[in-house]
Amino acid sequence: MKQRYFEDLKIGDRFQSNAYLVTQDGILAFAREFDPQVFHLDPASAKETMFEGLVASGWHTAAISMRLFVRTMHVLGGIIGLGVDELRWPNPVRPDDVLTVETEIVDLRASRSKPSYGIVRLRNITKNQRDEIVQTMLASALVPKHSYKDIVSQLPMKHK
Amino acid sequence: MKQRYFEDLKIGDRFQSNAYLVTQDGILAFAREFDPQVFHLDPASAKETMFEGLVASGWHTAAISMRLFVRTMHVLGGIIGLGVDELRWPNPVRPDDVLTVETEIVDLRASRSKPSYGIVRLRNITKNQRDEIVQTMLASALVPKHSYKDIVSQLPMKHK
Questions:
Q1: 20 to 30 A Cα–Cα from A94, which one of A88, A109, B52, B58?
Q2: Which residues contact B148 (CB under 8 A, 6 or more apart)?
Q3: Which residues contact B70 (CB under 8 A, 6 or more apart)?
Q4: CA separation for the pair B27, B53 (Å, rounded)
């Protein structure tokens, strides 16, 4: 797929990611490493909590959403996160949920300090297979301009 | 260590986490799964980017910060994230950095919809071994009240 640059984006553009299957093993592995709480760690005990079953850490949902977003956008040279606001988890993510991310470009402006980058303001909405919203956020990120291409064209892009 | 409940917290309370060593292998593993971009994936190519070397995904820093925060707070029944604002990454995290999290309780109020929980507003600041700030955030979370103890006292807390 064609790589994107800052100049390729327009306010109002929308992008739809591929799908990601959340597994129970994935939920447990993330929780053991990063969010060791009972409702993320132990399916039996989680039944006795407010969630009435195992749920993914919100940070796991955020990480999965980043994966889907990065693979959708295809930005050569990378998307560099500056900050996130209004990160919310209105519904839990459970084993066997299938997540997708919708991205909307909210604003575009030049970067004064980094002339080879533009600043993109975007909204990401993560939904499950029942079209329920499991995460929303508003983010700002640096995206390379087309002029950046010359700088990185010799880079070995091992991350394909 | 003694478990904490909502009633144990006061506005202005501060907590300091243990330390977490960030490894190159950890940065690469997280990036491959969740943030496959060149400056998180490949030490050699990362030298040619704006970061001039390998850096951790911001979502990896957020996940490590959650781990440190959860283990500091010792909240029986768990801390349930409602939302995060003003998530920023003012400095990059690099291999061999040692991170700690400082938590400040900013506000406390009752939950109308869930009477056995209180809502905690808190600020988490993540620093490296040079006292540089690598992440800041403001978060809201549900924390069980002491009355919740009876409900969960029989739970096997396998996540210790």
A1: B58
A2: B5, B76, B77, B116, B117
A3: A35, A36, A37, B79
A4: 12
In 3-state terms, what secondary structure has residue A102?
Answer: strand
How many CB atoms within 10 Å of residue A143? 25
Task: Verify whether the Cβ–Cβ distance A81 to B66 is below 8 Å.
Answer: no
ipTM, two decimals, is 0.91
**Cα→Cα distances B53→A157, B41, B43, Å:** 15, 10, 6
Nearest by CB to A83, which of B88, B142, B151? Answer: B88
Let me know if B65 is exposed, middle or buried by CB neighbors in 10 A (0-12, 13-18, 19+).
Answer: buried
Q: Do B38 and A158 touch (CB under 8 A)?
A: yes
From the CA of A89, how many Å to the nearest CA of chain B?
6
The H or E element containing residue B31 is helix B24-34
HSE-up of residue A150 (Cα within 13 Å, Cβ side): 2
pLDDT 10s digits, A97-125: 999 999 999 999 999 888 899 999 999 99
In contact, B61 and B95? CB cutoff 8 Å: no
B81-95 pLDDT, tens per residue? 999 999 999 999 999
Q: Is A150 exposed, middle or buried (0-12, 13-18, 19+ CB in 10 A)?
A: exposed
Contacts of B127 (CB under 8 A, 6+ apart): B99, B100, B101, B102, B133, B134
CA–CA dist B99, A87 (Å, integer):
23
Residues near A62 by beta carbon (within 8 Å), at least 6 away in sequence: A87, A135, A137, B59, B62
Q: Enter the pTM of the model.
A: 0.91
Tell me if A87 and B88 make a contact (CB, 8 A cut-off): no
Tell me the per-residue pLDDT of A21-45, one tens digit each, with 9 for 90 and over: 999 999 999 999 999 999 999 999 9
